[in-house]
Amino acid sequence: MSGIPDTYPIDMAPLKSDLKMPYTLTPGRAAGTFLAEIVSRRIVGTSFTKSGTVVVPAQDFCPSNGDAEFEFIEAPETGVLTAFTETEAGLIGLIRIDGTDVDFPHRIVGAGYADLSVGLRVQAVWSDNGAVGILAIAGFRPAPEAPIGAIKPLANPAKPLEVVPYEMTLHYEHAFGPYYGRLFDEIKTNRRIMGVRSPSGDGAMIPPREICDITHKPTGTWVEVAQTGTVRAMSIIYLEFLGQKQPPPYIYAEIMLDGASTRLIHNVAGLDMSRAKELVKPGTRVRAVWRETRTGSLDDISHFEIIDAKDS
Amino acid sequence: MSRHVGIVGVGQTHHARRRTDVSQAGLVREAVDRALSDAKLTIEDIDSVIVATGPVLFAAVNQPEKWVVDAIGAQLKPVVRVTSGGGTGLAGTLAGYYQIAGGLVDRVLIVAYDKLSEGALQYSISTLYDPFWGREFAVGIMGFSAAYWRARMDTLGHTEEAAAMVAVKNRHNAMNNPYAHVKKEVTVDDVLKSKPLAWPIKLLDVPPISDGAAAVVLSSERMAAKSTDRPAWIHGIGYFCEADNAPSRSLLVSEPLAIAVRRIYRTAGITNPRRQFDLVELQEPYTCFELSYYESLGLCAPGEAAELIRSGATQLDGDIPVNPSGGCAGANPIGAAGLIRVVEAAAQVMGKAAGNQIPNAKLALAQAGGGWANLRGVAVLSA
Amino acid sequence: MGDGLESEKHKMNTGKVAAIASAQTELRTAWSGAQHIDLISAVVTQVFKGTGLDLDDVDFVLNSGSDVLDGRSISNCGFLGAMGAHHKEESRVEEDGLWAALYGVTKIASGAADVGLILAYSKPSESDVNLFYSSQCEPFYQRPVGFDHRAASGMQAQSYLRAHGVTETQLANVVSRRWQDAAQRGRVAIAAVPDAEAVLASVNVAAPLRKLMMSRPVDGAVAVLLASEDIARRAARTPVWFTGMGASMDRHAFAARQPGVLEACSVAARRAYDNAGWKSVRPAVAEVSASSAASELMVLESLGLAAPGHGIDLLDGADVAVNLSGGALPADPIMATGLVRLSEAMRQLSTPGLYGLKAPTAAVVHGAGGVGMQTHCAMTLEV
After folding, report:
1. Could you give the residue ranges of the DSSP H alpha helices within A200-256?
2. If you average pLDDT over residues B179-197, what whole number do you get?
3. Is residue C84 part of a domain?
4. Looking at chain B, which residues constitute the CATH 3.40.47.10 domain(s)?
5. Chain B contacts of A163, Cβ < 8 Å?
């Protein structure tokens, strides 16, 4: 039933990859107003015109039916706990603020799981460490005696916040699998670039994999491809962007190594960049130049250098 | 495929470099409201919703259809997201088409959007590459697109000058497009002198980064009359792909596009695209792609794209206007760009193009694509 | 009314599309010796066995996967070769695989294609499942307070248990039974089957839900082959016909959903049953997805297989065999779970003897997605 390739089992630790991306998110009118007003310890919600549904925190669209016409209201700090749980993040509950129609999630503070019950009255606790946004409210604490508050219209709402900085970091550990495992093991240990014979017999496929991408047939035996090859396509990179591995200008190239039927992506370097257009074109012959260090990745090849006509 | 699914309403936002007044959800709602209004319907009339966006890493919300469902007012309707990089709008239209043609529902709302101002575009799109093999060299999609263009310069004569003419034409056309936000004409010289980013791609070969959304309402034949007496019927639609590591990777001709074209033209009865189509709306991530598509779409033979643009045939007053809307040069919210092409092509044959209406337009071609230039499709629309 | 239920509605082309074969890798907590493409190509290679068909016969490939789980933007475009999609029509549905199957059925039902390959896969072991879900939460109000899938599941379970007096021991019994069934059927790698005591002793993840009461993410891939009627009758001894399909997405705001029930699941099921013409709901087989033992009971009730609060009764031999595969609790290949349910139901309907089933003629299969199971898809299958 398995059919998972097992050609050359190698125990390689997975490749770690972190995607760390900055964002500037736009909250929109309702959330933007909430975020602006919370700074002054005002809890803002929206009262939808057609249905009369009141929600906190403020939303542009009624969560029940998408209505888009609303007025801002100011909500009291008290409400009722309608559900709760405890996760790694702490105590999280759903709170129905007095006078509103829809609950929302927030933290529960000043109590343990065993102290809580559905129906318990709660009260907002303001953060004292300058937290912004929804966390300007540190959480809600049990307040069984707290009187029921009322919503009131919000006069002169603050100008909505337009941009909220945010960051997302996603961490991955990618398994090599036996084909990439051998490929990079050979690169690291023997400084050889290995592919597998394509089912049709025309050249080797790199990177190697068990099944041919075109025919979906099993690929053949392992074969070393040359360290020399031909540039098939190239571009001179001047653009600077976040996450770039080297400063521009540099040459991005697709190279067909001699013996391979698929391309390898790398840089062509070691030339006078002011003559790049003239010296590097489709058809230019190049050769791999290895670094001192060995990490078992394409980075072990520092770059490809032009093979002078007199060398080839 | 017979004429039983049509576009009965279209809408798009006024695209902008940055919309700070609405969240992603608000942007979606704007386009949806316009398309529904154009179709004389309310969300209650819609049976199913398809959301199409660019890759989620663009804007920090995973599976965003689950967030924007509330904004659309589609709670409890079937909602699904189809994705295909830049071509996602066309892929979404294709999925919606089959929901109707397959008899599941009568009306589908397709909404596509991207809020590119929110994220680190080049970085997140560079994760398209294999983390083991090539990602460290990635320059978004610009790097390989530029490299392929360089190869086509030699073999097909797609010169920098010819590509510059594409920029001139599209930016000129965008001047009249009320939804575009780049409103600045350029000359061939301006383009050639603009800063190289990934040579041969230069600054003025590149579309803007935009926030924007578009939406269409698809209807079965029997329900179409409630919205319009002139739907844009979908006569053929398809979306093909190519393995990214294909040895004969489409440097010269986009093979998945050529396959799509061959199949869909046959279905739709297109034997001479240049003569038969009244206009083409194609998605050009960079100017060089428009030249390549002239050939892949059969508007001219391979190697003749430069001549075609030089001849003026693809201008508004030419015999095969291409991108009367201005294409991506006027606005490029990537996840929406493919659907914007469909919107513009549909509006043309329905006789209600907002900007440069091609007189008597009856038959239009929309093209879009994404991924590693390996996901490509077309739609043939007629009224 | 826009949900397709009015009397004049399009009924699905009943009996016209069948699932004719499926293949699945073993589901493991970590396939550490394989990449995504290895899992995908394995099932694509195997799925044709016994049908007399091969990849050349496939008209289109639809796949389900997640950029966020894969760590790649537009991840489908890097896996197209392994999917067998080269030069075919392809689309990525960024939702559970059962939605990809739904799309495939509409495409064949429309007459545009005869054979479709539906794929779903994931390797949650390579990333952080909690982030996969929390990144679906709206970023301004929900994410910062720590609201996520676990919190939603915990509060969902709390509401359900309170409403019906179902106990944690009963939840533990469900878990233990499912793990037992999964271990016996041999398609899930299980080191040890927990008894109810072990379930109750596992750590609290989202009180009242303990770790073993949550569905366990696993790596795996699954392929299902769909065919039009003519081909299905030739290629499969027991074609499994799609007689009804429905989907529904609930509100993003968890608190705005009805507590203690899965409204969208009921809506999806009703649509499927109406399409199938099922007056009463008594399939012999049910394969359903779930994110926790509590939500599995809620799903069974929402599907109409038990009265509210009585999902637990189905554990003790009822006329419907529930999750003989073990369901999602022991093995949840996120993004593929619903398609695995389809694959398992196919096996139960076509080789009932292996499962101790008499002569089952109908099954209901279910897939879901989103935080707190926001969106649902239900299908009726008949032989």
Report:
1. none
2. 97
3. yes
4. 5-121+210-224, 139-205+233-382
5. 20
Closest CA in chain B for residue A17:
B131
Of the listed ranges B1-5, B48-52, C318-322, the least confidently predicted one is B1-5
Among candidate residues A251, A247, A310, A305, the one with its CA nearest the CA of residue A276: A251
Burial of C191 (0-12, 13-18, 19+ CB in 10 A): exposed
Q: What is the mean pLDDT of residues A58-87?
A: 96
* pLDDT for residue C319: 86
- Which class is domain A177-306? mainly beta
Long-range contacts of B225-231 (CB under 8 A, 24+ apart): B226/B40, B226/B41, B227/B8, B227/B9, B227/B39, B227/B40, B227/B41, B228/B8, B228/B9, B228/B39, B228/B40, B228/B350, B230/B350, B230/B351, B230/B383, B231/B6, B231/B7, B231/B8, B231/B350, B231/B383
**Do the Cβ atoms of B346 and B355 come closer than 8 Å?**
no
Residue of C42, C68, C123 lying closest to A4 (CB–CB): C42
Its ipTM equals 0.96
Quick one: pLDDT at residue B210? Answer: 96
Q: Closest by alpha carbon to C28, among C120, C123, C132, C119?
A: C123
Domain at B139-205+233-382, CATH class: alpha beta
C81 and A213 within 8 Å at the Cβ level: the answer is yes
pLDDT tens digit string along A236-265? 999 998 878 889 999 999 999 999 999 999
pLDDT, position B80:
98
Total number of domains constituting chain C: 1
Residue C50 is part of a domain; what is its CATH number?
A: 3.40.47.10
pTM: 0.96
Q: Test A60 with B23 for CB contact under 8 angstroms.
A: yes
Q: Which amino acid is at B276?
A: Q
pLDDT (0 to 100) of residue C241: 97
Strands A228-237 and A285-290: antiparallel
CATH entry 3.40.47.10 includes domain B5-121+210-224: yes
Contacting partners of chain B (3+ CB pairs under 8 A): A, C
pLDDT-derived band at C185 (thresholds 50, 70, 90) equals confident
Q: How far apart are CA A312 and CA A309, in angstroms?
A: 6
